[in-house]
Design a protein that fits this description.
Number of strands: 0
Helix content: over 70%
Order of helices and strands: HHHHH
Oligomer: single chain
Shape: elongated
Strand content: under 5%
Radius of gyration: 18 Å
Length: about 150
């Protein structure tokens, strides 16, 4: 599989897993992901976009290799985790929230289930992208399309 195709599948899966994971965590904890007065959902969205960008920055060079390493998934998870937290803090501060309040929001994200969900989703999707790139499978074929052996 071509690197850009594997990356596209990984990014779509990442966003889907993050949205689903944060939704389930919200239901289980009965709390909002970002629960700060005056802070809407925009910092969270920007954080997920930044996490996807960080994951892309780690994955794309690795996927271009002939035989990418599965260790890439760990670096993608770390990059997505840190980018998510940094982007939430920065977008909250730029949005006019006090830096201390933005820091407390980021601390809650980092210590609760929220940011680890982003990291786990990045690790799963990066691992899958590497697996897609390393596999030698071809497209499925009907029985009459197979070559006689």
């Amino acid at each position: 599989m071509r690197p850009l195709v594997a990356l596209a599948f990984a990014l779509m899966g990442f966003v889907a897993l993050v949205v689903a994971g944060l939704g389930v965590a919200t239901l289980l904890t009965e709390s909002d992901v970002i629960a700060a007065p005056g802070l809407g959902p925009l910092p969270g969205v920007i954080g997920v976009i930044a996490a996807a960008a960080a994951m892309t920055g780690v994955l794309l060079p690795a996927l271009r290799a002939q035989h990418p390493s599965y260790l890439t998934a760990l670096w993608a998870a770390i990059g997505a985790y840190l980018a998510y937290l940094a982007a939430v803090w920065l977008s909250a501060v730029i949005g006019g929230v006090d830096a201390a309040v933005a820091g407390s929001v980021v601390a809650r994200l980092a210590l609760g289930p929220w940011a680890p969900i982003v990291a786990v989703a990045a690790a799963i999707c990066a691992w899958a992208a590497v697996a897609l790139r390393r596999t030698r499978a071809s497209r499925p074929r009907w029985p009459w399309e197979r070559h006689p052996t």
